[in-house]
């Protein structure tokens, strides 16, 4: 007999928001990453180097495909490890854009295209940030209800319920590295966001205040996502996040490789950056492999 548990039905507002942000991230992230690879600085704010806006674009581009899969879930518990970081990014980038309004292309006398892009960036982020807060409020107003068809190991079907017991629990050996990885990204992000004048110069390439805080928002969201996945202790509930993490790491690695000459790889921050990006990629790939193995075991046991 299948177990049951309490879970919140996934709000249609969360699904719609994820799809909209996914589409925008593909377009804008692709633009920022491509122009950075070609050596141009096309960010919403003025940056001293093309690397920083390229990294922001790489993160957007990498997370976009996973956002389109959120609608396959039935309950909030299966997507919150990706949806919460998404809200963090939207609210955080909007706040950073307002705090650094004097660095925006529109107010800094940038080219007309970039000036208009920066205005659109702020307006779009404002609308999406407000929508994200509203969607989370609507989601948590959903009552807890029994979810049937649970308690079984994951078979790769995104429409299944949330198990009463972890369908694919995290192996014990994986928890300490996940805690270190998530805490590192969270701490770096919080430092860059709250104290950009101190932490920004520690980055292994040249950044300004807006760059430091913008990158800090993304680092903070990665930390939130990794630690949320650790708290879930169930790979079946973190499937969308597992899809996003290696894609973000891969897109980031490509941009870093193109601008390798601008990064001080021999420094402590340079070595740490390489380790953190590698850790993200390894986390996503190993998590997907473990989830797939749990599905095969389930199929063999039926």
Mean pLDDT: 89
Number of strands: 2
Our measurement of the CA-to-CA distance between the termini, rounded to an integer number of angstroms, reads 13 Å
Q: Residue ranges: pLDDT <50 for 5 or more in a row? A: 149-163
Category by helix and strand content? mainly alpha
Helix content: 55-70%
Topology as a string of helices (H) and strands (E): EHHHHEHHHHH
Shape: globular
Q: Mind telling me the C-alpha Rg?
A: 20 Å
Strand content: under 5%
For this structure, the quaternary state is single chain
Largest sheet features? 2 strands, antiparallel
Biggest β-sheet: strands ordered side by side in the sheet: 1-2
Count of DSSP-assigned helices: 9
Short note summarizing the structure:
With 302 residues, the protein is mainly alpha-helical. It is 64% helix and 4% strand.
Task: Tell me what you see in this structure.
- By secondary structure, the chain is mainly α.
- It is 64% helix and 4% strand.
- The protein has nine helices and two strands; from the N terminus they run βααααβααααα.
- The protein has helices spanning 12-37, 51-67, 80-99, 112-140, 175-194, 196-199, 209-232, 239-258, 268-301, and strands at 3-8, 144-150.
- A two-stranded antiparallel sheet has the order 1-2.
- The longest helix has 34 residues, at 268-301.
- The chain is globular.
